[in-house]
Amino acid sequence: MTTTNGGTPMLVVDDIHTYYGQIHALRGIKIEVNQGEVVTLIGANGAGKTTTLKTISGLLHARQGAVRFEGEDITKAAAHELVEKGIGHAPEGRRIFPRLTVLENLQMGAFSRPKANIQPDIDRVFVLFPRLQERRGQLGGTLSGGEQQMLAIGRALMAEPRLLLLDEPSLGLAPILVAQVFETIKRINGQGTTVLLVEQNALQALSIAHRGYVLQTGEVVLSGSAESLRQDEMVRKAYLGED
């Protein structure tokens, strides 16, 4: 796994407040992600983890505060613009195109790029996920849950992101597939992609992350190195299932 570069953070989320209508979902979230890191957001359902990723990727816009990527203010940027700037997002629930084949889903992930240049990235995805190569002509909607998750991650990688946002990649997967997905996230990070990971499986997330943030009701209540969070009594009781 690559290490942090000690320089200016790649991503800065600075005191953002995000709403769903009148519901105040994020209440002053502050996080930073350095180049080369895996950073994880952990917390219970409704804590604001998915909303944070959506605000970063442009699917939602903060009413207050700022989001900066590589020094540029992207707070109000549209989602498709952020893909072009280097932010990939594999959303919760996979959201693949069920009536397109595996190969067509991957090609859709590279919509912002010249089609002639994408074959090396398709090859990379098939190396990371050999099962997808076996299923390349199969419709996305006929894949298993684990295969759909692989496809969602692969599709996000097709945009050549420098920052990859992953939302609940292990949700609903069998334990053996969970281990495979997390091992692949480590490989993706080791190849140079920075990762911001939302994951309810806190033990697995902290096992591959450099640092983490704990969210409760739209606020960061704790942050630190992955090791310090693993040892924290509150984290151990609330999220790791330990007494």
Q: What distinguishing features does this structure have?
A:
alpha/beta, disordered N terminus, six-stranded mixed beta sheet, four-stranded antiparallel beta sheet, 10 helices, 10 strands, Rossmann fold, 243 residues, globular, 36% helix, single chain
Give an overview in words.
The chain contains 10 helices and 10 strands. With 243 residues, it is an alpha/beta fold. It has a single domain (11-238), classed as Rossmann fold. The strands form 2 sheets. It has a 6-stranded mixed sheet with strand order 6-7-8-3-9-10, sandwiched between helices. The radius of gyration is 17 Å and the shape is globular. The relative contact order is 0.18. The model is unreliable at 1-5 (pLDDT under 50).
Topology (elements, then pairings):
Blueprint: E1 11-20, E2 23-33, E3 38-42, H1 49-57, E4 64-69, E5 72-73, H2 79-85, E6 87-90, H3 102-109, H4 119-128, H5 130-134, H6 145-157, E7 163-167, H7 175-190, E8 194-198, H8 202-208, E9 211-216, E10 219-225, H9 226-231, H10 233-238
Parallel strand pairs: 3-8, 3-9, 6-7, 7-8
Antiparallel strand pairs: 1-2, 1-4, 4-5, 9-10
Helix pairs in contact: 3-6
State the CATH class: Alpha Beta
From the spread of the alpha carbons, the general shape counts as: globular
Overall pLDDT metric: 90
Task: Give the strand order, joined by hyphens, for the main sheet.
Answer: 6-7-8-3-9-10
Strand composition percent: 25-35%
SS summary, helix count: 10
CA radius of gyration is 17 Å
Q: State the CATH superfamily name.
A: P-loop containing nucleotide triphosphate hydrolases
Using the coordinates shown, work out and report the CATH topology: Rossmann fold
Unreliable stretches (pLDDT < 50, length at least 5) are 1-5
User: How far is the first residue's CA from the last residue's CA?
Assistant: 31 Å
Structural class: alpha/beta
Number of strands: 10
The arrangement of helices and strands along the chain is EEEHEEHEHHHHEHEHEEHH
The percent of residues in helical segments reads 25-40%
Mind telling me which CATH architecture this is? 3-Layer(aba) Sandwich
**Largest sheet, if any?**
6 strands, mixed
What is the number of independent domains? Answer: 1
What's the oligomerization state?
single chain
